[in-house]
Design a protein that fits this description.
Chain lengths: 381, 381
Amino acid sequence: MLVKNRLLIPGPSQVPPEVNAAMARPIIGHRSGDFAKFHEELAKKLKQIFQTENEVVILTGSGTAAMEASVSSVVNPGDEVLCIVTGKFGERFAELAKVYGANVTVVEAKWGETYDLDTVTKLIQEKKFKLVCATHNETSTGVTNNIPALGDLCRKYDALLLVDAVSSMGGMDIKTDEWNVDLMVSGSQKAFMLPPGLSFVSISPKALEVINNNDSTNYYLSLKKAKKSQDKWSTPYTPNVSLFYALDEACNMILKEGLDTVFMRHKLLAEACQEAVKALGLNLLAKEEISSYTVTAFTGNVDTEAVRSLLKKKFGFAVAGGQDSLKGKIIRIGHMGYMDFADLFGVIAALELCLKEVGYPVELGKGVGAAMDVFYRGGRD
Amino acid sequence: MLVKNRLLIPGPSQVPPEVNAAMARPIIGHRSGDFAKFHEELAKKLKQIFQTENEVVILTGSGTAAMEASVSSVVNPGDEVLCIVTGKFGERFAELAKVYGANVTVVEAKWGETYDLDTVTKLIQEKKFKLVCATHNETSTGVTNNIPALGDLCRKYDALLLVDAVSSMGGMDIKTDEWNVDLMVSGSQKAFMLPPGLSFVSISPKALEVINNNDSTNYYLSLKKAKKSQDKWSTPYTPNVSLFYALDEACNMILKEGLDTVFMRHKLLAEACQEAVKALGLNLLAKEEISSYTVTAFTGNVDTEAVRSLLKKKFGFAVAGGQDSLKGKIIRIGHMGYMDFADLFGVIAALELCLKEVGYPVELGKGVGAAMDVFYRGGRD
């Protein structure tokens, strides 16, 4: 039976037809004046979404490329780096810092939980770190970490703060400057509603000084080069021009909807998804107060992999399972970017039917009803 | 707040991305050998969906163009024509027959009901009709009329049978030959999943003989010319080449899903929609036994226009209101073509919320639950 492909993994996410259409525009030369002018206008829009006065460079590569660009442009062998790990993408920072020869201190939280602020504070007070790496929205667990608290600490103890907001920027209220984040990383394929292939880094003056004086082992991923080129509205290497067009269209859509409305939509979708999960007797992986607005992870007394497989086969919904230690144990639904309430009602209804099919007791309509109620009341509180 | 455009009027309907992509192919000359070869293969697929051995000509024009082509190619002034009218599109046949000078006899049913077979039988027994016109699926009311019974009568009393299957062909099980339909009309923008702009007419040998010997007042809409051109896999005038590509892709999708599966999907969607409407205490316009599988019309103790307006504004769902005498009184949801269960769950959930917003009593989730139950049980019976 026909089912539509409905991509609700926590990224790549759904792409609006307007964005697809933008990608069909003819390629122009990336060294042309036309491109430079376009790039300059685009960067202004990106800065609005990043809520920053800092420059945001655009890299042709995935989110990991931007993470590596940031780490490799700042870290020298022997530098002290603190990595706050609350899931798979936190681990990635630690791996990267090690690759570039840093002395890495890791603070780990159990997957599904956030970091302990006292532990982190103590560590930062005890040792002088050049760089602190943290994940804003941990895609692997659906946990949102407190970044402002880290920003305060880094300001006080003079460390650079590098934050992965790959799966939250464009969907959640992230105040890059107010939070004192020196390097804020994001990617195209999540709340930005684009296909994969671009990533972004905002660079504070303080970070730029370190970068420009650093003896970095990188070339393609050099933030020094990226920033230097961007000062002339160029890129050091050939950019993905089609995705630049797409980004421009997506930024237009986000800014037209209005940042506050976009953030509210993501918050409502998240709360509705969480309430539906709870109404079905399933268990949220993350406590509600640290739950992400872009991805909901849950588990329950049910074969989650069988449910995921049915969701795809019977209803076309691609949702994610767990990674690493959570493999086979959880389901993750992405609700970011080009997603509205009808999408959410659809996936919850489908989830109920798939749960029922594998023998889990479901009163049909109960989960959807709970999600609808959140929409009706305009939020959970 | 962002909502996706969700086109659930009873046509034009949603277009699959594959079909949109097909329309982006470069135009080729319509008098070329390449086009002729393509046309020949395409016609074979169309015949499978029409369940006919007769040739199906493709016209560049809407469903009304195909209706007019059929009437004008068969009718001469003074001819006796019987029009079975059960809604707006039945009326259109009567209007067309009058324009071409026929003596028109009209059998009318109340909107929302089907025709009375005894009345029709008596009329056909009493008077020799050259042509009988009927609507298979009356889009304005959501009623499906019994065509096989008319086919039997027309065979027995030697009248041509012209049927409008614009909003059902490709979604419902229509046996053109077995039902003895001489001229079966359909259009691109309904269950065929294409944008508007093409229409189709299957022509029986008996109809072709009449057409070829007729002194018709038409030119662009001449079925004689269309059939003559099609014998060489050409068209009399410039065809919409992009929509021919789209049609080919859509036929591939329909045939790949399998006709039986396509028909079952439409039946299930219709039953689920009907059960949801009933569970919400609303009233189906048509009795279930004559209810269409591609469009559901309903009414209730509520301001239907306010609900329609909210559905569009709050959830992006475009659904139709009533036409002519039913204007402002009903809501019509199209569930044809590129539509799956997640779409249906979404629109029902949205309907519930909009009903609640205008003060209609709703227990959130009840309608969706009823629709889910139909899916779960694999049908209503």
